[in-house]
Amino acid sequence: MIFQIDFQAGKPVYLQLADQIRYAAACGRLQPGEALPALRPLSEELRVNRNTIAKAYAELEAQGIVETHPGKGCFVTANRSPFTEPVRKSLLLTEIDEAVVMAHHLQVDKETFLQLVRERLDYFETKLEAAQNGK
What we know:
CATH superfamily of the largest domain: Winged helix-like DNA-binding domain superfamily/Winged helix DNA-binding domain
């Protein structure tokens, strides 16, 4: 799996990495049980500190996306969240609020925004089905 880090972006490197792994797991590029790259080789490849990679993995583990097996590494978990329904909703609402604010600043109208959301949901559903069917 190839990760890309933009050092000029205003977003911390560990969050960029966590987002890319989260995206890969959501669209089926990373399957449950699949191992994530080891800290040292990935840190060398991306030219970042190992602690940055560890912080991204810890963030994903706290969200229930990966699990660490001591001595073996980090692995993608099955689609089960450790968070309760209200907490999951709250986390999602925060992300939705950010997207709505961004759409407002980009002068994207409500109908276009909702259509884009529908398209992305369909896209991820299609990718997940393809991954589950082994395509």
